[in-house]
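Lecture 7 notes: from sequence to structure.

We start with a single chain of 180 residues. Read the sequence below before looking at the structure.
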Amino acid sequence: MVIGDLIIDDYVTCDAVGMSQEDPTIVVTPILTRTFVGGAGGVAAHARGLGADPEAQAAAGLAACVGHSWPVFARFRGGKAVATAFGGLLMVSREAAAWATVGGIGALTVSRTMSVGSLTAAGTATLGAGLESSRRRDAVPFVFTALASALVIVRHAPNIRRIARGEEPKLSARLWGGRH
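Now the structure, written as tokens:
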């Protein structure tokens, strides 16, 4: 089982300069920084690097979503798989990832409700993947996105009930540049 999230990993190669005079730490000078996609995106990227076909990449991304939602080491209490699904989506369909970004940020901006943004991102990603799959005659982007979005929706069931009752918390006005 794969457990992961969308993470951006920066690896910094350094030269050791010496010891700090203030505390027992090594002073370094960075000489090279490399950035890699991590988490579910990393799983899919490594699957691609190992020669996995698109179906296997999508399966790895879905496995990461399931592992994030029901992690064995956290007694099967995990997250809602939004970031993990997005990481897999970046590997399976950048076009659908763009749809998710625009839809999710748009809904978040209008509603100021994180779950509305997340659910809208899942829906617009599925729409974008469906259009891409139809145009390219390749079912993988749509199947991956539809399954990952279904998982996101299932994991958001309590949020959906709170939205329907008008009780879902909104983001603070301070985050949007207003007064609290």
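The mean pLDDT is 85. Keep this in mind for problem set 3.
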